[in-house]
Every structure is written in C-alpha cells, then in structure tokens.
Amino acid sequence: MKIGPMSPEWLRVASVVLLSVLLPATISPAEALASGNKNFQFFAPPAEGTLPDGPLGRLIRKGELIFIHTNLYAKKYVGNDLTCESCHLDRGIKPYSAPLWGAFGTYPRYREKNHKVNTLEERIQGCFRFSLNGTPPPVDSETMKAIIAYAYWVSRGAPIGLYLKGQGIVRLPKPDRTPSIRRGKVLFEARCALCHGLDGQGTQADLGQVAFPPVWGPHSYNKGAGFSNVRELAGFLRMNMPLSKGKSLSDQQAWDVAAYVDSHTRPQDPRKSSPATGQ
Ligand code: HEC
Ligand code: HEC
C-alpha cells in the first residue's frame, strides 16, 4: 500500500510527528507511577475551614477532629499518647510529613509490609495498629468514614495516580558515617529535649491531651511502626524537627538523632506472637 500525501495513513503519521514537536514532553500518569517519580508536581490543599454544608460537611469536620484529637474522638482505637497529627503535621497537610493529599490519589497500592494491595482504609488501619499502638477501626465504622471524608476533602483537586512533590516521607541517602547513638544523644539533649523531655516522654497538657508527644517508651509508637525504621524516622526528622525548624538538621544529624531515639524501649510489634522481650 502506498502512503501518498493526504491519504489517511499519511495524515496519521504527520499528526503524530507534529504533535510530538508541538507538545512539551509530558509524563503520563502511568509512567509517573511506574517510575516512582516523586517530584512530579506540587499541590496546594484547599484553605482551612472551607467545608460543604450538610451531612458531608459534618462528616469531614468529624474526620478532622479525629485526626487532630485522635485520643478524644476515636479513643477506643488508640493505644498510646499520639494523634494522627503527631506525625502527619499541620492537620495532615504539611509536605514531607506524609500529607493526606499525597496519599489519597495513590491508593489502592501494593505494600511489601503486608504483601497485598492495600486500600486507603487498610493503610490507615495500619497506622492505628502500629503508630497508635491500638486497634484498627473497621472499614465501615463511622471513624473510618470520617477520616476518609476528611482525607478526600483536603485532596480536592489533586490528580489521581500521581506521586506529588512533598508526598510521603523523604528517603535520605545512606549517611557518610555510621549513625551514632552517642552523637544523637548530644543532639537530642540540645535540640529536642526542650519539648520532648530529656526522658523522651513529652509533656501532658490539660484533660490528658498531649502538648508534646512521647518519642519512646510505653506511650509511643510500637516496633512495627514506620518510624521504627531508622531511615524513615531520619527522613521525617530531617524535614520536620525541631518543630517549625525543619531542615535545620543535616542528613547526618538526622540519622544520628534517629538512631538515638530508636535505641530506647517501646511497645512490641503486635505481629510478633512471642511475649515482649522487655527491651
Ligand atoms: C508515629 C507516627 C504516625 C502516626 C501517629 C500516624 N501515622 Fe500515618 N504514617 C506514618 C508513617 C511513617 C507513614 C508512612 C509514610 C510513607 O513513607 O509513605 C504513614 C502513612 C500514612 C498514610 C499513607 C501515606 C502515603 O503517602 O502513602 C496515611 C493515609 C496515614 N498514615 C494516615 C494516618 C492516620 C489517619 C493516622 C491517625 C489515625 C496516622 N496516620 C497516624 C506515621 C504515623
Ligand atoms: C518546639 C518543640 C519541639 C522540638 C524542639 C522538637 N519537637 Fe518533635 N514534635 C513536637 C510536636 C508538638 C510534635 C507533634 C506535632 C503535632 O502534634 O502537631 C512533635 C512530633 C515529633 C515526632 C513524631 C511523634 C512522636 O512522638 O513520635 C518525633 C519522632 C519527634 N517529634 C522527634 C523530635 C526530635 C528527634 C527532635 C529534635 C531533633 C524534636 N522532635 C524537636 C515538638 C517539638
């Protein structure tokens, strides 16, 4: 078959060539997802306090309250002194503290941790079980519905299926020097103890609400939590701690202070059926 000028084949070839010249190189969502591109785009979540009227607005507001005061509004599912906001800062919208808008459009997702595709609900159940050392609320519970409604609301307008800039926790490069608990202790006492206490136990405020959360010990996250991985914790600290002075630690300092925090006792990983070792 001849491909003459103006034949359908010719037009098709010409339009493809023309389009590839005219359009800037773009990454399709599937490609971005496959390549794990984490610098794809920034996202600005909607302003605080803008809620729809009616039942949906009330559910979103409930989810926000659960997120910020988990131990008041979802008490029966929480087993320690932390709230969702203890780690997902600024009511879950701060970049690099695993913001909700970075998660909402990237589930369902396969996770090595439990060897299956997780829905967003299942991912959140994981945080209840490990990070809050508690009992996961059922998928169809009011608590879970409210959290999902809130996550949806702060993700309004974000693309589906893309890893956005600022999503998740920064993955730090391997440190130059082996992380040192000794150097970490010096740093912790100088830069962290003011709020979290020399003993790492934080400070209680009125009504049992925690002003500064404990970073180790029986009321902190357990050994199955993401932060029990030193690299994950170091990535969080690098970008977020000391509070409001994120990015002031160097990579090495973040590794060192993470190693120090991690060297203390905390509740056992609930997946381990063996009794607590007491360490
Ligand atoms: C002790 C810290 C901590 C607490 C408390 C915590 N989380 Fe997480 N959460 C994490 C870490 C760490 C990750 C993994 C982030 C990553 O690397 O993608 C995570 C992941 C998530 C994700 C998926 C994020 C993503 O980008 O894939 C969601 C959603 C989430 N948490 C919701 C919650 C909710 C809701 C609560 C409260 C019920 C909560 N978390 C409590 C530390 C915590
Ligand atoms: C000015 C007070 C302040 C300082 C200084 C500070 N933090 Fe925090 N930190 C907080 C607060 C408050 C939260 C919880 C955020 C929230 O609830 O909004 C937090 C959360 C955390 C968390 C996650 C929750 C938990 O309890 O495990 C870790 C880990 C942490 N800080 C470690 C550190 C380390 C390490 C340093 C020193 C490098 C440090 N912080 C310095 C106030 C502080």
TrEMBL record:
Start and end residues of each Cytochrome c domain: 179-265
Organism: Leptospirillum ferrodiazotrophum
Coiled coil: none
Compositional bias ranges of the Basic and acidic residues kind: 263-272
InterPro entries, per database record: Cyt_c-like_dom, Cyt_c-like_dom_sf, Cytochrome_c-type_DH
Pfam families noted in UniProt: Cytochrom_C, SoxA-TsdA_cyt-c
Gene3D superfamilies xrefs: Cytochrome c-like domain
The UniProt record lists the keyword Chloroplast: no
Source taxon at top rank: Bacteria
Keywords for this protein: Heme, Iron, Metal-binding
Stretches that traverse the bilayer: none
Name this polypeptide is given: Cytochrome c, class I
Disordered: region residues: 260-279
GO MF annotations, alphabetized: electron transfer activity; heme binding; metal ion binding
